[in-house]
């Protein structure tokens, strides 16, 4: 899984399925969670996709219910689905949705030609992770070797190390 996590971060672009500003949604995490995991320049609670922004990575939020997601320093237009991304095969998808939503979004991502996915803790059931491993060139998730987090492979916990392992310079910017 460590190799898969490293490969994930070689993607030229990223998208976060389920990015949200709704505090009741899974795709929302507090500034405390982000601060705890290395992004200490946050000043408000924000969606998990802010990790990608804070690390200067090209990211698109995917949320069919919102036209955009706002961070303090930038507002991002959302894509309604992985098939509406400019270049799905070059985009690594991170999933922050409930398992039934993830399951449907994984099938759509496969049809769109996405090659690399990262299933965040809580976003999948074991059958979803198995399906992702069987249907994508690269899939990250679960508890296989390498994760430093207690909940499984998580971009917020494992991302910095994986970025470095992928040869990407970690460049932080304010949210």
UniProtKB/TrEMBL annotation:
Residues 62-96 are annotated as: Disordered. SUPFAM superfamilies: NAD(P)-binding Rossmann-fold domains. Pfam families: CoA_binding_2. Gene3D superfamilies: NAD(P)-binding Rossmann-like Domain (3.40.50.720). InterPro entries: CoA-bd, NAD(P)-bd_dom_sf. Signal peptide: none annotated. It comes from the Eukaryota. Residues 14-138 form the CoA-binding domain. PANTHER family: COA-BINDING DOMAIN-CONTAINING PROTEIN, CYTOPLASMIC PROTEIN-RELATED. This is CoA-binding domain-containing protein. It comes from Knufia fluminis.
């Amino acid at each position: 899984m460590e190799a898969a996590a490293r490969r994930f971060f070689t993607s030229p672009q990223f998208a976060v399925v389920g990015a949200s500003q709704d505090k009741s949604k899974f795709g929302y995490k507090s500034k405390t969670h982000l601060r705890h995991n290395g992004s200490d320049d946050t000043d408000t609670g924000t969606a998990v996709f802010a990790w990608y922004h804070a690390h200067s990575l090209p990211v698109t939020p995917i949320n069919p219910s919102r036209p955009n997601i706002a961070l303090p320093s930038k507002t991002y237009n959302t894509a309604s689905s992985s098939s509406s991304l400019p270049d799905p095969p070059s985009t690594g998808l991170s999933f922050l949705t409930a398992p039934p939503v993830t399951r449907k979004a994984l099938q759509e991502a496969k049809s769109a030609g996405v090659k690399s996915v990262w299933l965040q803790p809580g976003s999948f059931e074991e059958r979803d992770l198995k399906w992702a491993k069987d249907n994508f060139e690269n899939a990250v998730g679960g508890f296989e070797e390498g994760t430093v987090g207690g909940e499984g492979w998580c971009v917020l916990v494992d991302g910095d190390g994986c970025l470095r392992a992928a040869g990407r310079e970690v460049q932080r910017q304010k949210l």
